[in-house]
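Example record for the data management plan.
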Amino acid sequence: MQVRTPDYYLQFKCIAGACTDSCCAGWQVDVDDRSYAYYETVTGEFGDRLRSVMIKGKRGAEGRFRIGSDGRCPFLNKNNLCDLYTALGEDALCTTCEMYPRYVTDFGNTREMGIALSCVTAAELIMGQQGEKGFVEHEDEDLFLVLNDIDGLFYINMLKAREKVYGILWNRDISMADRLVLLLEYAKLLEAHRDNPECFADLDVKMPSAIPATDAAKSYGLFWKYYLKQAIIKKEWALTGMKALELLKKGEFDCKAIPELLEQYSSEFENIATYFVYRYFLQAVFDNRITDRIKMCVVSILMILQSYYVDSIVRQEKPDFDRRVWLTHIYSRELEHSEENFARLLKTLGKKKVFSADNLISLLLLT
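Corresponding structural encoding:
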């Protein structure tokens, strides 16, 4: 099986107890069926401790650990280390704990892997990349082909389309805003030519001849209202959203500051955009939502930029790199580690006018 990863993938190292936002706190910990069955056989005091916090899944769902009232995994000790790992060893970890922040997507005879932006250590690595970007491929003979019900021709041409997207995102001769605008224009072309995927790589992408009008304050207010309807994982995210809505209502939110921040941190957002495209664009072969997946990338960037802006107002100082990493990983936690939130956003992006490609273009080109 062919395995593809970002070229920084092997640089990631978990810092365990030194992590500033442990992945063992604030999230539900799912336990795969194999691990659940093993934990039921563990004897002694630790076996009793395991079973006291295990909750069996219903209607075919995986089981999980009962999270403490403080939001922490019951095996996360005061030193932010895992008691289960200490007692039973690395091989005993359930799939969720063994893999995170690594993620896997299989496309037939190709597996794509990466590290999630929701991990603060991974976010620091992703956002801090300098110079040329690329991906590494190797053959893993121990992995077996995964059967997917996907259209092979569509998949091949989506691969070519993704290469074209990378070319747009990595063109540093133009502004980051223009790159995202071209990305949205390309998404519109892909949608229009969905029935002829063989032309995807040859489509001629151009800047729009006119900038559509928008009410930026109203648009950003609607953004936050949709996001705050989702399941909230960290209170900090909700507080940021409520402060943004307060500033927008009072007319004290400078919407033009958002594209200005995009250019100020263009290198970091080139990395973030590349992450979202690599992780999600090709998954359109499973659901055909090409445009929505591109819009998800752009909307995510606009939301992260707003969190930077609000943070600078609240803290009365511009966020340094470490703070920007923190804010970005907070956003990723809210979006990427709730299947409900992610599915709801994709659906909303396809239905609501405020998330249309033309409105997003207007927001990016606001001057």
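Summary line stored alongside the record: The two ends are 48 Å apart (CA to CA).
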